[in-house]
Specification:
By secondary structure, the protein is an alpha/beta fold. The protein has helices at 48-57, 59-79, 119-145, 185-197, 206-215, 220-229, and strands at 8-12, 15-23, 30-34, 37-42, 82-85, 88-96, 101-105, 108-113, 155-159, 166-168, 173-177.
Length: 237
């Protein structure tokens, strides 16, 4: 009996993804995205080194298609009435109204506004609510973390970057991706600690990671969560 091929890994901006390798009699190497998973189909004789080269050459294509799949999943989750906040899933209850309003009561987010039956309108309303929550929650966590930093912040703001969870400028201005408001608070704290460490070290040297560890001991689990689940966080907006 032939052994099952070991999966391959491909590093994307938000972390590594697993690539299922399928060996099959065919003339060429093919890549497909099936149910949100990457599959690489190759003839039995093609060496692994060449397959890694193929994956690297298709990195951007794979990232785009995975992002598109996740956007579709997000839209489907909204139409089924689910929204993620602080690592918890909440039911979504939509109400027709002339102006936008949002209120979280218990396990339900009550969202009011015009034409929320349209997926694009619903997505925009959810994004506006999540960004409003991000401003409040991020400000509170930063106020808690800033006293621990080696240098004071000059300021902070929200980011909508596609490939970065946070950034820190040489002038001490930190930006945090609003989508982090959906993650558990421990994950947000890790990203904050990561950026505050950049106030002292504008690199990813051993000294930088030592500073991350000083600020936030036990950060490894939060970083791993972000690598595994970051792509599932809402991507609209």
């Amino acid at each position: 009996m032939n052994a099952k091929p070991a999966p391959l890994n491909l590093q994307l901006p938000h972390g590594a993804v697993t690539v299922r390798l399928i060996r099959r009699a065919r003339q060429s190497v093919g890549i497909r995205i099936k149910h949100g998973e990457v599959e690489l189909i190759a003839p039995p004789a093609v060496p692994l080194a060449y397959l890694h080269e193929v994956l690297a050459s298709k990195r951007d294509w794979i990232a785009r298609h995975l992002a598109r799949h996740q956007a579709e999943q997000n839209e489907r989750a909204l139409t089924q009435g689910q929204v993620l906040l602080g690592g918890e899933s909440y039911r979504l209850h939509c109400i027709a109204a002339s102006r936008h309003q949002a209120q979280l009561v218990g396990d339900t987010l009550h969202l009011a506004g015009p034409m929320l039956e349209q997926p694009a309108r619903l997505a925009a309303s959810v994004v506006a609510y999540l960004q409003q929550q991000a401003r409040q929650r991020f400000a509170a966590r930063l106020a808690l973390w800033q006293p621990r930093a080696a240098r004071p912040l000059s300021g902070w703001g929200l980011s909508s970057a596609r490939t970065r969870w946070g950034s820190c400028t040489g002038r001490g201005v930190v930006r945090l991706n609003w989508r982090l408001v959906q993650a558990p608070e421990s994950v947000l704290d890790y990203v904050i600690a990561h950026e505050l460490a950049h106030l002292l070290h504008m690199n990813h040297s051993p000294a930088f990671w030592a500073e991350v560890g000083r600020l936030y001991p036990g950060w490894h689990g939060a970083r791993q969560w972000l690598k595994q689940h970051g792509d599932s966080l809402f991507r609209y907006g």
